[in-house]
Design goal:
Number of strands: 4
Strand content: 15-25%
Largest sheet: 4 strands, mixed
Order of helices and strands: EHEHHHHEE
Number of helices: 5
Shape: globular
Strand order of the largest sheet: 2-1-3-4
Radius of gyration: 14 Å
Structural class: alpha+beta
Distance between the termini: 8 Å
Helix content: 25-40%
C-alpha cells in the first residue's frame, strides 16, 4: 500500500500518526510540507479527496492567519494563503490508496491503512 504523510516533526500529532503508520508495518513517503509546500492544485486535490473545505484545514490559530485578515475568507483566498504560508496547513495529512485524511486525532489514520 502506498502511504504519504504531510509531516511536521515539531507536531506531536504528526509524530504520533507516523508511529501508528510504522506500527502497522508501513513505510510512508514523508513530505516536509513546510520545506516543500504543495501548490494550489495539490492542496485542492487533498481538500477534495478528504472531503474538507479550506476553512477546515487552515490553522486559524497561527499569527499569520490574523495578520492576513483571513477570518471569513473564501475558499480561493484560504488556499492561496496556505500555499504562500504553509504553516497555515493543518497536519498531519495522510494519503493512502484507501483515502485521504486530516489525522486529528492521530487514530483517524487507522481507517485508511
Amino acid at each position: 500500500m502506498s502511504v504519504t504523510l504531510w509531516h511536521n516533526t515539531a507536531c506531536s500529532k504528526s509524530r504520533n500518526t507516523l508511529k501508528l503508520i510504522r506500527d502497522a508495518g508501513l513505510d510512508p513517503v514523508i513530505v516536509d510540507y513546510l520545506a516543500d509546500p504543495p501548490d494550489a492544485q495539490a492542496l485542492r486535490k487533498v481538500l477534495a479527496d478528504a472531503g474538507l473545505r479550506a476553512a477546515e484545514l487552515v490553522r486559524s490559530n497561527e499569527p499569520v492567519f490574523a495578520e492576513l485578515g483571513l477570518a471569513g475568507a473564501d475558499e480561493a483566498r484560504l488556499v492561496d494563503a496556505m500555499v504562500a504560508h504553509p504553516r497555515l496547513i493543518n497536519r498531519p495529512i495522510v494519503i493512502t490508496d484507501k483515502g485521504t485524511r486530516l489525522c486529528r486525532p492521530p487514530e483517524r489514520v487507522l481507517d485508511i491503512l
